[in-house]
Amino acid sequence: METLIGELRKAEAENRYLREQLRGRKSGGGKPDPPKGTSPAASRSSEKERAEPAETKQHTKRSKLDRIRIDREEVLKLDRATLPPDAEFKGFEDVVVQELHIRTDNVRFRKEKYYITIIGP
How far is CA 83 from CA 46, 77, 78, 80, 94, in A? Predict the structure, then answer.
């Protein structure tokens, strides 16, 4: 009986602790405490990276167009009759449109087959 009461008290204490943690998360509190048995340093995977100031990290923004493979190119022409007579051609403006086509390519192969009749000696 005494062991059951001891286990009940232990479970109640753990329940109170978990409710406090949950209440802290709901109210926008800080990070929850790490689980028992782990050190705070072990829970941080990249502590060195977080300690570095932002100025030392090199980050350059590149254009995504440099990495996009162009599959085909189309030239869109205007009907010059709709333009005013003093309109001058100034070159092209490139616009890249990305589309994803998912389609099936099911092929039925019709193989010819032949049989040979062998007549014994």
Answer: 61, 12, 8, 5, 21
Of the candidates 53, 50, 17, which has an alpha carbon nearest to the alpha carbon of residue 35? 17
Contact 69, 58 (CB under 8 A): no
CA 92, 98, 102: angle at the middle one, nearest 5? 145
Domains of the chain by residue range: 1-38
Q: Model's pTM, two decimal places? A: 0.34
**Long-range contacts (CB closer than 8 Å, 24 or more residues apart) made by 79-82:** none
The DSSP code for 80 is G
Backbone dihedral angles phi then psi of residue 54, each to the nearest 5 degrees: -65, -25
* Amino acid found at 109: F
Residues 41 and 53 sit within 8 Å (Cβ to Cβ):
no
pLDDT in tens, 12-52: 999 999 988 888 877 765 555 666 655 555 555 566 666 66
CA distances (Å), 15 to each of 6, 11, 82, in order?
14, 6, 77
